[in-house]
Amino acid sequence: MSEREEQAHGVREVKSAARTVELLEVLAARGDRPARLQELADELAVPRSSMYALLQTLIARGWVRTDVTGSLYGIGIHALLTGTSYLDTDPYVRTARPFLDEASGALGETIHLGRLDGFDVAYLATRESHEYLRTISRVGRRLPANVGALGKALLAERSDDALPPGPYPRATENTRTTREALAADLAATRARGHSIDREEGVTGIVGFGFALRYALPAHDAISCSVPVARLTPEHEERIVAVMREIRSKIESAARHGAPGAPDWR
Q1: What is d(CA 76, CA 84) in angstroms, rounded to the nearest whole number?
Q2: What residues are paired with 143 via a beta bridge?
Q3: 20 sits in which H/E element
Q4: Using the 8-state DSSP alphabet, how is residue 234 labeled?
Q5: Backbone dihedral angles phi then psi of residue 197, each to the nearest 5 degrees
Q6: Are 172 and 101 in contact (CB under 8 A)?
Q7: Interacting residues of 235 by C-beta distance below 8 A, sequence separation 6+
Q8: Which residue has the higher pLDDT, 137 or 183?
């Protein structure tokens, strides 16, 4: 088949490459819970011998690590190096960074930049408040889009027809876990122009999310998180005003980015 025919009809998936990616995703999703050989073989439905050979290949290349007994497996340092390269070369992350610093300095609260990935949001940058630490928001962390301000700001940029049927993951007792409840919240988000997460992702934390519309539909958003104990009506008003201004600055800068830069999809 010619290259043109392959583009027209699609290219058959390379099974060995797909299996490698699936294994890395499984290990990454386990976080600080290392896996045993049989667990991985069972989860990916591959023979134990094939899984062992794949693990040894990835260990040799730094993508997987093992403990001193050789019986436990986790994600390797090359995954970190690749992720860092992604952040360093992404034009939107690079553009947003100085404005995240500006928002953090103006508000004294935690500021995030996130990107929608399916029904999850991946955190791409964070400026932590000196007053508190929100450990779930570390760069590279993925959270369901229904539980936080970033995800709801981005879901509101899309038709409700694209929402999964549910039920959705629950993070706190305030999380909207049904399609109907989430759709109603997204309608309110569209009406006010930004999302609000009132202790839906983390108890004691309120978030305000703003979609960045340099791409349509928006795939990135910024948010400001603040402890409930410090959130007065006046502070909320200032947060919204500052974050709207920061959104406008990021959008303007992104539209006048470096000429010739790839338009990543």
Answers
A1: 13
A2: 121
A3: helix 15-29
A4: H
A5: -115, 100
A6: no
A7: 226
A8: 183
Q: Give, as one character, the DSSP assignment of residue 161.
A: G
Contact 127, 253 (CB under 8 A): no
* Distance spanning both ends of the chain, measured CA to CA: 26
DSSP strand pairing (35-36 vs 72-75): antiparallel
Q: Residue 34 CA to chain centroid, in angstroms?
A: 22
Tell me which H or E stretch contains 85.
Answer: helix 77-89
In this prediction, residues 172-189 reach a mean pLDDT of: 97
* pTM: predicted TM-score of the whole model, two decimal places: 0.81
Q: Please state, in angstroms and as integers, the Cα–Cα distance from residue 73 to each residue in 18, 23, 119, 198, following that order.
A: 19, 11, 28, 38
**Cβ count near 159 (within 10 Å):** 9
- Dihedral angle at the C-alpha atoms of 23, 24, 29, 33, nearest 10 degrees? 80
Q: What is the pLDDT of residues 22-76, one digit of tens each?
A: 999 999 888 889 999 999 999 999 999 999 999 999 999 999 999 999 999 999 9
Structural contact between residues 144 and 120, judged by C-beta atoms closer than 8 angstroms: yes
Closest Cα partner for 212 from 251, 241, 246?
Answer: 251
Residue type, 91: P
Cβ burial of 31 (10 Å; 0-12, 13-18, 19+) is exposed
Helix (H), strand (E) at residue 142: strand 142-144
Locate 75 and state its tokens: 């994600």
